């Protein structure tokens, strides 16, 4: 009996040793990371036959969930992947025995902190394998988009997400966040974007926009995103004043995962505090001038309005000049006609 058990154990060891990966217990965080099967080589390699491989991903907190994007190239029917919503293969599967090739990454999210992944290959035909991207997160949208929200950007990074993240966002949502920094400007780091796909020139369905200022104007949009993952790569932005507006809207159909971003002030509070305590009178002046220089224009004064005003004034000026010239000429003529009579 003991011998059989030992043999069985050796067999398991042998099988799992063919899964030649550096880590099987994986810690996720709020950055998008990935794992690949052995020999994946960015989708151009090939995996090992007779592989039985597992990974367990931990989001790192009971309130956190996992967002997963799977890219696969597996020979059907013998080579397959299963993803479980839990820390072992006894949990509910998010997907079971999936094989074949995906043109775009398939998205999943867990309902709790762990994901357990199992990849099995048979004795024949090997293809590129799998790449699994993952990220730990929760819904950082705040009060559920019931109204406009104001967030303070401080020394440390805070997170903001679309509603229900990392699950699918829901239909007919309109959310507006004003992110404002008491000292300095706002640094945005857009970690992840996955929005219903549309032509970037249209963005008629779902989208999010970043506006540079404390209002949402036509002329201060610095970014409009309406593409699914992985079309939009991460990007960063620093406001020109003390605030930015993040606006998200979804229509009545097709939901994706949304977005995750980090925000912070680009100045440090600690430095300001030190300056203020050491030189009280002069620092007062500095802090108020900082505030002034960081004030954002809060009216949506767009280019057309400016052109309108300039054009309008120009018309008035030209008209006045014409009237004056006309009057002078009239006066001159009047004098001429009067003169011969003298
Ligand atoms: C914050 O960003 C603004 C705009 O890019 C820049 O002018 C300013 O120097 C930055 N402040 C710090 C402390 O880096």
Structural overview:
The longest helix has 36 residues, at 303-338. Among the domains are: 22-137, Spermadhesin, CUB domain (Jelly Rolls); 148-269, Spermadhesin, CUB domain (Jelly Rolls). The chain is α+β, with helices and mostly antiparallel strands. It has a five-stranded mixed sheet, with no helix packed on it. Helix 2 (269-278) packs antiparallel against helix 3. A hairpin with an 8-residue loop joins strand 5 (80-84) and strand 6. The protein has helices at residues 2-17, 269-278, 280-294, 303-338, and strands at residues 25-27, 33-36, 52-58, 65-74, 80-84, 93-98, 100-101, 106-109, 114-120, 129-137, 148-153, 158-161, 174-181, 186-194, 207-212, 221-225, 235-238, 243-249, 258-265. The protein is elongated and about 120 Å long. 2-acetamido-2-deoxy-beta-D-glucopyranose binds next to loops. Residues 1-17 form the signal peptide. This is CUB domain-containing protein. Keywords: Disulfide bond, Membrane, Repeat, Signal, Transmembrane, Transmembrane helix.
């Amino acid at each position: 009996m003991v011998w059989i058990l030992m043999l069985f154990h050796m067999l398991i060891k042998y099988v799992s040793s063919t899964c030649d990966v550096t880590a099987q217990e994986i810690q996720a965080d709020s950055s998008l990371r990935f794992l690949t099967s052995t020999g994946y080589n960015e989708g151009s390699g090939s995996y090992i036959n007779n592989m039985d491989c597992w990974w367990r991903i931990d989001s790192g907190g009971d309130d956190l969930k996992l967002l997963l994007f799977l890219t696969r190239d597996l020979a059907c029917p013998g080579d397959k992947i299963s993803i479980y919503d839990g820390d072992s293969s006894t949990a509910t599967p998010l997907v079971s025995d999936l094989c074949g090739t995906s043109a775009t990454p398939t998205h999943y999210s867990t309902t709790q902190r762990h994901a357990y992944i199992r990849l099995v290959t048979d004795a024949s035909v090997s293809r590129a394998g799998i790449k699994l991207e993952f990220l730990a997160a929760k819904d950082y949208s705040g009060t559920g988009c019931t109204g406009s929200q104001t967030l303070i950007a401080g020394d440390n990074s805070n997170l903001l997400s679309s509603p229900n993240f990392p699950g699918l966002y829901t239909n007919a949502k309109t959310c507006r966040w004003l992110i404002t920094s008491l000292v300095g400007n706002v640094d945005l780091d857009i970690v992840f974007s996955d929005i219903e796909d549309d032509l970037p020139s249209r963005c008629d369905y779902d989208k999010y926009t970043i506006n540079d200022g404390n209002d949402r104007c036509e002329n201060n949009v610095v970014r409009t995103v309406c593409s699914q993952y992985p079309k939009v790569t991460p990007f960063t932005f620093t406001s020109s004043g003390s605030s930015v507006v993040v606006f998200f809207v979804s229509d009545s159909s097709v939901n994706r995962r949304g977005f995750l971003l980090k925000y912070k002030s680009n100045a440090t509070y600690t430095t300001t505090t030190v300056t203020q305590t050491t030189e009280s009178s002069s620092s007062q002046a500095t802090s108020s001038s900082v505030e002034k220089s960081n004030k954002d224009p809060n009216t949506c004064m767009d280019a057309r309005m400016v052109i309108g005003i300039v054009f309008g004034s120009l018309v008035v000026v030209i008209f006045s000049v014409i009237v004056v010239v006309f009057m002078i000429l009239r006066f001159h003529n009047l004098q001429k006609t009067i003169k011969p009579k003298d």
